[in-house]
Structures are given as C-alpha cells and as structure tokens.
C-alpha cells in the first residue's frame, strides 16, 4: 500500500515538472515572438517615416464617446478590449486621444470609382533610389498600367540574306 502511494507521488512530481517546463517554453516562445514583432514594427515605422507617409490614426468611436463623457478609466478598458494593448500602452493612447482627438476616417470610395493617380514627387524629394532608377524602368511602370496590346503575329523571314545557306 505504501508503494502505491509512493509511485503515485513520484508520478505527480514528474507530471508537475513536465507541466512547468512546458509552460516555461511557451512563455519563452511568446516573449521571443513579441520581441520579433516589436522589431518589425520599429522597422516599418522607420520606412514609413523615410517615405514621408502620413498614416491616419485609427478612430475608436466607443473610446472617444467614453472620453467625451469624462469616463477615462472606462475608455482605457474599452481601448484594451478593442486592441489587446497592455495597460500602460492603452493609458498612453487614451491620454493622447484626449489631448488630440482623432477625426473620423473619410468615407470609403466605391469600388467602381477610379482611383486618383498619385502625385509625382520632385526628384529632389524622391531620394537616392530614384536617382539611380533608369528612365526605361519608369516608363515600364507606366506601360504596365496601360491596356494590353494585341500580340504581333510572327511573320516568316523571306529575306534570302537573313537565312543561312546549307553550305555555311
């Protein structure tokens, strides 16, 4: 009887050890993934800043409504639920929204309406990559947006000079 209890205790200890090791491994993977994601976000922010793109901030109507009512804690809670952000990040974002309210996003354009052509940037603002780009590549991009042209029919060469003679 004592042996059965001892074996059960040993199995429980081993199981607890395996469970702890499994949870620790998962935490390490989650931490590594979070670090990689933060690194990618930083790189993306640098690229966006370098290209001079101004991204509109996302509006959270529920959060903004709670802020207008003066319910800051409820707004932070709503922001966390909507974004999955941590407490500090949510608090900072809500305080930023409180200082600089976000304007609602413009209405989406219908799919049938053509997209406006992007404004060309002067060469001085385009950066070093644009200076190295050959003119042919720029026209190739413009040709890609044009309607496809029918393929030219191949015609056999009838010029005797163009065809090699059998003795050559």
TrEMBL record:
Q: Where is the composition biased (Low complexity)?
A: 123-168
The record, for InterPro entries, names:
Ribosomal_bL12_C (IPR013823), Ribosomal_bL12_C/ClpS-like (IPR014719)
Please list where the region (Disordered) is annotated.
85-168
Q: Where is the Large ribosomal subunit protein bL12 C-terminal domain?
A: 70-98
Q: Where is the composition biased (Basic and acidic residues)?
A: 88-102
This chain belongs to which protein, by name? Answer: Large ribosomal subunit protein bL12 C-terminal domain-containing protein
